[in-house]
Specification:
Elements (H helix, E strand, L loop, with lengths): L1 E3 L13 H18 L5 E2 L2 E12 L8 E11 L3 E12 L5 E17 L2 E2 L4 H10 L1 E6 L1
Parallel strand pairs: 4-8
Antiparallel strand pairs: 1-4, 2-3, 3-6, 4-5, 5-6, 6-7
Keywords: Hydrolase
Organism: Campylobacter californiensis
GO molecular function, one term: thiolester hydrolase activity
Length: 138
């Protein structure tokens, strides 16, 4: 997914506010489901973030064009660990760049009625086909 940085995404210095990187990653995860025409939650079951580890590598600024890439590191019975990376692919001057600006590992737990629930084969198949698999514990 691509995101262009607007004034509302930045702080007073024109640098992307740190929490927005996590929001961009959340949008990218949701977009995987939207693009496939799938619901990412059902009335009684859904994913929740149970942990995340973030690394801020370089600042992004007003006018940058970013691309968010998502890959699967690990799939467990009722959760999965994703690697999400954000790359600057362009700037306000239209110059093409390719540099890493942010990365995070996020653990998503799948819950049904508020309790951990085993991932269905259908959901596992969708995840495997929608995101690149990079982990060794799949």
């Amino acid at each position: 997914m691509r995101v262009k940085i607007y004034y509302e995404d930045t702080d007073v210095g024109g640098i992307v506010y740190h929490a927005n990187y996590i929001k961009f990653c959340e949008r990218a995860r949701s977009d995987l489901f939207f693009t496939a025409g799938r619901k990412f939650f059902l009335p009684s079951s859904h994913f929740v973030v149970s942990s995340l580890e973030a690394k801020f590598i370089k600042p992004s600024v007003l006018g940058d064009l970013l691309e968010i890439k998502t890959s699967v590191l690990e799939i467990k019975k009722a959760s999965l660990v994703l690697r999400q990376e954000i790359f600057r692919i362009g700037d306000i001057n239209g110059e093409t760049k390719l540099e890493s600006v942010f990365a995070m590992n996020v653990t998503l737990a799948f819950l049904k009625d508020g309790k951990p629930q085993r991932l269905s084969e259908e959901l596992l198949s969708f995840i495997s086909s929608s995101m690149s698999l990079t982990g060794e514990n799949l």
